[in-house]
Amino acid sequence: MTGTGEPTGYMERTRLYYRALGYSPDYVWAHFDDVPFARLAQPLAQSRIAIVTTSSPGDRSNADARGVRRVWSGAVSPPPQSWVTDDLAWDKDSTHMRDRESFLPIETAQGLAAEGMFAGLTPHFHGIPTEYSHRKTTKEDAPALLSLLRDERADGVLLFPI
Amino acid sequence: MDIVTYAGVPRFLFTDFPLGNPAGHPGRPDMQRAIVAQALRMLETATGPRTVETAPFVWHDTGDWRARYGHIDPVKIARLKAAGEERRRRQAAAKALRAAPPE
Lengths: 162, 103
Prior knowledge:
The complex is a heterodimer. By secondary structure, chain A is α/β, with parallel strands linked by helices. Helix content of chain A is 23%, strand content 15%. Chain A has one domain. In chain A, the strands form two sheets. In chain A, strands 1, 3, 5, 6 and 7 form a five-stranded mixed beta sheet that branches. Chain A has a two-stranded antiparallel sheet with strand order 2-4. By secondary structure, chain B is mainly alpha-helical. In chain B, helix 2 (29-45) links the parallel strand 1 (11-14) and strand 2. Classes of the chains: A alpha/beta, B mainly alpha.
């Protein structure tokens, strides 16, 4: 059966996979007892929205000479025509990522803004790397991303993790 | 679904598809529009953290994509272990490079 049934248990699947590769101990996923929450400060129709992706730019310019990936930004107009996702753990047996709007829906969102659903996108979308290190995400990448979002006065954010 | 809810986020729109297309099937702008619109509405309608909604779409193919992802073929376990060894070796080399002072 496809499309019905329980959602895939990725934590258990991933644990078993890495055990098969000989890794020990198991990976420890981030877990927060307290989750932040904020309502929009004004109606959605008046809100400026930013899009965030976990993909990399086509030229891999988000990585330094040592291969460490950093937060990066790209213009929404025109939207990017190339991207890199082959380093991420998406389901390469079952789908593809050749349609940007299936994971980075910039033009889709612009269409909804044009219809008046929200005020518009921020001038840039942003990319944040997926990392094994909780510390790098919480101490380096997340603060860098927040700073970029504030610079362009985003009222809300849609994150499309791959 | 399980990883995101375990971590805990303010709002989560679950799309029950193979990993890689969180905004809708490739080549389906109608579905992509519906999913992005639902996510946007959650910005306004959610009243507290850990709000979860599920998009009303299913994956389109008839194969068993859930079973395929990360499947461990018993026949290939030795190969997986060898791949793991190679990966650890590369990671150790990369870590040593990062630890070295910049030139």
